[in-house]
Specification:
- The complex is a heterodimer of chains A (954) and B (176).
- Chain A has 23 helices and 50 strands.
- In chain A, the strands form 13 sheets. In chain A, strands 9, 10, 11, 12, 13, 14 and 28 form a seven-stranded mixed β-sheet that branches. A seven-stranded mixed β-sheet of chain A has the order 40-41-42-43-39-33-44, with helices on both faces.
- Chain A is elongated.
- Chain B folds into two domains: 20-36 and 103-172, Probable tRNA modification gtpase trme, domain 1 (Gyrase A, domain 2); 39-100, no CATH class.
- Chain B contains four helices and eleven strands, in the order H-E-E-E-H-E-E-E-E-E-H-E-E-E-H.
- In chain B, strand 4 and strand 5 form a beta hairpin.
- The chains are: A alpha+beta (954), B alpha+beta (176).
- The interface between A and B is large, with 54 and 52 residues.
Chain lengths: 954, 176
Amino acid sequence: MTGYRLPAGGRIDRHRTINFRFDGRDYQGFAGDTLASAMAGAGIVLVGRSFKYHRPRGLLGIGSEECNALVSINRGAARVTPNVRSTQVWLYPGLNAISQNRWPSLRWDVVALNDVFAPLFPAGFYNKTFMWPRSAWEKLYEPVIRRLAGLGESPVERDPDHYDATYAHCEVLVVGGGRAGIDAALAAAQSGGRVILIDEGDELGGGALADPAQWPVLMALKQELYSCSNVMVLTRTTAFGFYHQNFIGATQQLTDYLEPAVSQGAREKLWRIRAGEVVLAQGAIERPLVFNGNDVPGVMLASAARSLALRFGVAVGRQVVVMAAHDSGWHDALAMAAAGVTIAAIIDVRHVVSGDLAEAARAMGIAVHTGAAITRVAGRHAVKGVTFASDGTGPSRRIACDTVLMAGGWTPSVHLWSHAKGSLVWSDAWGAYLPGTALENTRAVGACAGEWDFGAGVVTAVLPNALPVRSQTAFVDFQNDVKARDIHLAVQEGFRSIEHIKRYTTNGMATDQGKTSNLNGLQIASEALGRPVSDIGLTTFRPPYTPQTFGALLGHHKGALFQPVRKSVIDDWANLQGAVFENVGNWRRARYFPQGGEDMHSAVLRECTAVRERVGVFDASTLGKIEVVGPDAAEFLNRMYTNPWKGLAPGRCRYGLLLREDGFIIDDGVSARLADDRFHLTTTTGGAARVLNMMEDYLQTEWPDLDVWLTSTTEQWAVIALQGPRARDVIAPLVEGIDLSPAAFPHMAVREGTIAGVPTRLFRVSFTGELGFEINVPADQGRKVWDAVLRSGGAHGISPYGTEAMHVLRAEKGFIIVGQDTDGTMTPYDMGLDWAVGKKKPDFVGKRSLARPDMSAPGRKQFIGLLTERPQDLLEEGAQVVLDPTAPVPVPMIGHVTSAYHSVALGRTIALAVIADGRARIGEMVFIPMPDTVIRATVTAPVFHDPEGSRLNA
Amino acid sequence: MLEIAPLAKSGADLAVGTKPHIGAIIGRPVTLSPAAPHSRWSLRARDPALLGSALGRALPDRIGTVLDGIARLGPDEWYALLEAGTALPVLTGLPVSVVDVSARALGFTVSGEGARLALERGCPLDLARLAPGSATRTVFETVEIQVWPTAPDAFHIEVWRSFAPWLWHALAEAIV
């Protein structure tokens, strides 16, 4: 127990104590505390275990750079948030925090054995050690390593929270609410445009909050800011990504800082902000120093300790030693001493330090040791003292202390600048990269631009020590447990680029993205390689700046709103009938209509029987529909589809086959010519958007000269398919203005008239092999016509059927379903559809590819039927077909089953398949090996029912 | 194990409201209502003058503006949102395309002081710059919509029929 609350000072409200819990024990903090400051004030030093070696760790920083003090916050079983930086958790009554990555307890952690054997676990250890056997990765190595080297645990219950999201627009967006950001926002507000200021803290002020001298000015500036009607200030909001054209993603905390009992509404809000100009005022992060023992709990950043003392009224320890390479450490030490913190000594690696600083320190009774470095830190769970020596190698001296503060200089935060692809320029003075030229209308101000006076300092790699680096416990990346020796090892093993060194050592690859480790890693690599830092490169910062919840990214897309479920106008009716549904694209379609406890098998057999013997009605509304209009409509379709379209007479329909440029089938459908310059196209349900995009693409880029336009009419028309020998009888009493006689209205024709008083485009088409009509009516009238058809069909034994019966009926006829029987590598010839290819046409999409020798080479898979030897064996869709099941493994596979059903028309099962040289194998026996048996089947033509098509023309 | 709701069940019960949904967003009143039926037409042509004279109607000149119920959505595309029952001549033999899409979409009205906030939740456009008399095609999250500002605090929204239940509820969710 070393930290304690100072008797006065800070921005906390000492009249409002707040009880909180850490690892099951109760503590107290004050309103205005973060969890980190409250824990420090309560004397808690050990806050977590490291990722790989399970080393005990204490607080390092004070903001989003914190890499050690990650905790799980428990707001109920379903609301456990792991891996939260305690420095960014605002205290509320009853806050329940739990340490991570330890078992059974934070103090006694079994896996800390990893640390004892740390010399055996150098960088690259896992990659090198767990190479083989390969199978052990999945079952043994990976799960075990994952358990040992994890962060917090995710909740296993459904997240009960909801998340809000919005877009916002402004002329100027300022990221960062420190002095520089506030100034920028006020200046922008003068010009009258909309200004948004984002800050991740709970109050504006940034670094100034740790400097009481600035508080009066800060308050005045804030008042001015809040009085501007054109400025929106978002606190507790993290700008996590900077995307193209000044588009910023930010997450605002709405309830996490409140007691669960009083939190209402959305938990977080995703802000998607488009800004005319972005001003980045992200500030800078203090750099740790790399020295032996720098990760013992109680070793932390000087700026963090200063903030604890002056903002939160917490002394980090009773005996504090400062290890500095930069003036800012001295400034912090002096400010803390003035606030009542005992600074035992300031050690500075520099031989010469500004006389004013040294004098001021001595005047406050602080021992000063210049030209010296800490060589060892005593203590495991907490600092007990330090050993230091002149230049690291001289005679050693020891100081007893409970806290060591590191002041290694400052790293401007260029994260968002880098997301936006702004260039970076190395600065020797800062020992860091600074923003160079912006790609967007963006500028950096304040410390993140290098425009801040933190004083002078030197840039160091590893502090001097008589011990070789490989014998030191000198950490660079605290969160990923990367030591200076790991970077030396990477260099020794031949890595030269920082990108490779990073991946080999994992330096900077933890959830903090190297906020405190990247620059130190670079310096160490530079020194080890003997080349300037700017030669080694810089790793890329990527969004998010800090880890974000999935909930915030999902926004409204949750539960029923996860994704639109598209329903036809007949869906309500199907639902009332107790239909079982399936998803096709994002449509839901009725799959079958069970009656009185029927299973799918019996329902589908019954529905198929109705269609073959009487009449069935089917909701085909989801079919894609495109109206193609213009003088060049026929010419356009002629170029898109494989078959000829120009000769099609108005009033007639044609099956169209659409290929991609590579010659493979992408879609098909029946289309009608309504007039010389007007076609009604249909596409597959799932392919509608794809086909329209493809056609629009060709129209705009290849043939902009054609006078033809495409209009999606999928949702304009409800489509009622009526199929079966009595189909004509059902609609006859309803239809006006159309002669339904076979002679006047043959198969593959279209007529316009009315049905049940509603204007219709009536198609005579069939996807079942029976006499059939597809009734197109405006969608808002669809249900009315559907009801009329059902009423009229009552006398004819009409039955609704679903997509499953539709699949069976078409399979009996060998009609393909693109995407089920084809897989994106099938040509018209493969599918036996060469009759649909216009051989004499000068061109169509895919024609040139079809001429490639491989596209007609022997051995290609061809579409055929399969009849199993035992008539009731149902093949499994996707099952592989072989010629010799006794062949040694791997058995050569010649194709696979694409469709398989019980056929009521045949009284047995049928299957469709694509197999190599299939048509030449008709009559041959093939084998379909299953886990427990081998099924024998005969290859047949893919048409099982009424091959002459006599029923169609009834 | 979490039970994963299949897609067909998750959003299947949503339906477009038949009555206005009245509430507020961040304290500002908003009303979401189903709009009256309309006659809708997709109009395409390379030559606006030809289309206008063939239809016997004046067409808006600037993309994104509305004239007498017709919006210009793109260089060769207009969208007519007319009183229900209004028919346009179906032209043949001309290099134009006139397609009746009356039943393709449904209309909503979002009005009130918070109307813009309600739409901004899912629409990436800067709606503050969209004045009455303009109209544009855009999206609300993943769903294509058209936004027609009709007054400073009122918008007419066009959405394809099958996406309408989702959109209704996505908008209504925030109007409490």
